[in-house]
Amino acid sequence: MRGDTSPSYQVHRGFPSPPEGFQRVVRVYRPPTPPGTRHRLLVMQDGQNLLDFDHDPSRAPWGVNEGLNTAMLQASGPPWLLVAVDHRGVDRMGDYSPWPDPRLPVEARGQRYGEFVAEHLIPWARSSLPVLDRPEDTAIAGSSLGGLIALFIAWRYPEVVRRVAAFSPSVMWSSRQIFRYWSRHPGGLQRIYLDTGSREYFEVGEVTLDYGLDVAEFHGHLQAVGYSNQELRLVRDPLGQHSERDWRRRFPTALRWLSSG
Questions:
Q1: Which terminal residue of the chain, N or C, has fewer Cβ atoms less than 10 Å from its own Cβ?
Q2: Looking at residue 53, which CATH number applies to its domain?
Q3: How do 40-44 and 207-210 pair as beta strands?
Q4: Is residue 3 pLDDT above 70, yes or no?
């Protein structure tokens, strides 16, 4: 990945996740930066849905490569390099659930996934890729349950990651456990980005998913425990739905917020 000003892309299949007891697919995208560039590190969930040129054909891609390329030209700080973890195609809900939800038959394995990201994936990236190794230069992002697990990891491991973007995060999961878990301002986190669309409302069995209401109330909860407007941002999309097309539209805004400060 070094010595070339063109974009670089690698897929690491069979990437070991010792805490989970199986292997994952990890994708690495570097924008067309000059040789010797040290990048900030952006970790994302659902890797097979993110890149225009290599994505699950059943889903519209986020266009993260386009967003990173544009940000490289516009931002004053170091550019971002993407390390994206595919979901496995099965048990996504369990893999990204930090806590069980008694209303759904899902085994919560998200804490093991968080351990994989913080204690295995990010150290590997810092030792193997041209990235800066400070937590201030590391961000994690995701959508829906991938956004919830991003918030959980950012809270649980502030010594590893200090910036987080949660697109339509499922903060209502497990009867709003994230509200009880995130009960104080511990310091460390520098940027928290939240967003939601006004058209995101679902009923799954006995579970109501009202993203517009719950994400706004989680934003208010974080304000109440002490986060300032310099640390925390909420974007409400009046036309937003729960889809990759909507998250793609909002990704540049999130990236600018993660890059500031």
A1: C
A2: 3.40.50.1820
A3: unpaired
A4: no
Pick 6 or 184 by higher pLDDT. 184
pLDDT in tens, 144-202: 999 999 999 999 999 999 999 999 999 999 999 999 999 999 888 899 999 999 889 98
Entry pTM: 0.94
Domain encompassing residue 216: 8-259
pLDDT at position 4 is 55
Specify if 47 maps to a domain.
yes
Contact 173, 148 (CB under 8 A): yes
pLDDT digits (tens, 9 = 90+) for 62-83: 889 999 998 887 777 899 999 9
Tokens of 66: 């386009």
Q: Does residue 12 come out as left (phi exceeding 0), alpha (psi in the -120 to 50 range) or beta? A: beta
Cβ count near 252 (within 10 Å): 16
How many domains does the chain contain in total?
Answer: 1
Strands 40-44 and 163-167, sheet pairing: unpaired
Residue 207 has pLDDT above 90, yes or no: no
E strand or H helix at 195? strand 191-197
Of the candidates 64, 58, 97, 96, the one whose C-alpha atom is nearest the C-alpha of residue 80 is 64
222 CB-near residues (< 8 Å, 6+ apart): 182, 192, 232
- Please check whether residue 179 lies inside any domain of the structure: yes
Is 45 part of any domain?
Answer: yes
Residue 219 is assigned to a structural domain of this protein: yes
- CA-wise closest residue to 170 among 178, 158, 161: 178
| 228/223 Cα distance (integer angstroms) | 6
Q: Which DSSP symbol is given to 155?
A: H
SS3 content of the chain, % helix, strand, coil (to 5): 35, 25, 40
